[in-house]
């Protein structure tokens, strides 16, 4: 899908991935690990920003990036071209009070752009499954390019069989094959999920070699 397609989906409200809440697996991870090292986190393909806000609340200097201008507008709580149609989502996206200044949203093509600086952490949630499978090597190279040496890559992977997408399916085997040459796997587990994804997600916590 091109950036234009993603923008159109936000403009028309065709956003079945939008759950109005952060990934339950991320919420549980941050609650269980209150002493994480590192200060900066990159959330690529951040959408309306629920996950990014969760990292910011946990004390990280947080940057959400998305290729669709309307996603960034929604994440920032600023108007898009048809405010009436997107009102509900915008209110949800911007409804949390006390979101600290350490949260920023920026327009970027994660696969092709250079990072503004190297991050301590990258958090993946439904970007890997959203891109064309032919771009997955580009994705792995982007994670390597945007992350500091020794940085952490935390992923909520979506293990579905679908070949027509997005979302495009993957397997644990493919993820190991792609990431293990460059990262050490610290742990993996099946997280708590949104109701319609229960049992279909696998979280992996990798450290860049
Ligand atoms: C399925 S949505 C998931 C959004 C969010 N992560 C969530 O779970 O609610 C995929 C997101 O990735 C964005 N995206 C697609 N390709 C991208 C790219 N190359 N760089 C940055 N964002 C991209 C889309 O605009 C969209 O917001």
Topology diagram in text:
Layout: H1 3-12, H2 24-32, E1 40-44, H3 50-57, E2 61-66, H4 69-76, H5 87-93, E3 103-107, E4 119-125, H6 136-146, E5 147-158, H7 172-179, E6 183-189, E7 201-208
Parallel strand pairs: 1-2, 1-4, 2-3, 4-5
Antiparallel strand pairs: 5-7, 6-7
Bound molecules: S-adenosylmethionine.
S-adenosylmethionine binds at residues 6, 17-18, 44-47, 65-68, 71, 109-111, 125-127, 130-131.
Offer a quick outline of the entry.
It is built from seven helices and seven strands; from the N terminus they run ααβαβααββαβαββ. It is α/β, with parallel strands linked by helices and 209 residues long.
Output the number of helix runs.
7
Q: Cα distance, first to last residue?
A: 31 Å
Strand order of the largest sheet: 3-2-1-4-5-7-6
Mean pLDDT: 90
- Helix percent reads 25-40%
Question: Assembly type of the shown chains?
Answer: single chain
Order of helices and strands: HHEHEHHEEHEHEE
Q: Tell me the fraction of residues in β-strands, as a range.
A: 15-25%
- Any idea what the shape is? globular
């Amino acid at each position: 899908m091109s950036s234009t397609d993603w923008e159109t989906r936000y403009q028309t409200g065709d956003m079945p991935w939008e759950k109005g809440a952060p990934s339950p697996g991320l919420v549980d991870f941050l609650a269980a690990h209150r002493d994480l090292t590192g200060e900066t986190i990159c959330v690529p393909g951040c959408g309306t920003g629920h996950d990014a806000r969760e990292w910011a609340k946990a004390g990280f200097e947080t940057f959400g990036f998305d290729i669709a201008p309307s996603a960034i507008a929604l994440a920032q709580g600023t108007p898009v071209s048809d405010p009436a149609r997107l009102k509900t989502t915008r209110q949800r996206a911007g409804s949390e009070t006390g979101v600290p200044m350490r949260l920023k949203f920026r327009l970027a093509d994660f696969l092709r752009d250079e990072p503004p600086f190297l991050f301590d952490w990258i958090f993946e949630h439904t970007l890997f499954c959203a891109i064309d499978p032919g771009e997955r090597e580009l994705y792995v190279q982007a994670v390597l390019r945007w992350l500091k040496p020794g940085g952490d890559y935390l992923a909520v992977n979506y293990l579905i069989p679908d070949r027509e997408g997005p979302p495009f399916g993957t397997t644990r085997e493919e993820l190991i094959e792609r990431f293990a040459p460059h990262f050490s796997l610290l742990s993996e587990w099946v997280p708590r999920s949104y109701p319609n994804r229960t049992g279909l997600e696998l979280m992996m916590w990798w450290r860049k070699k």
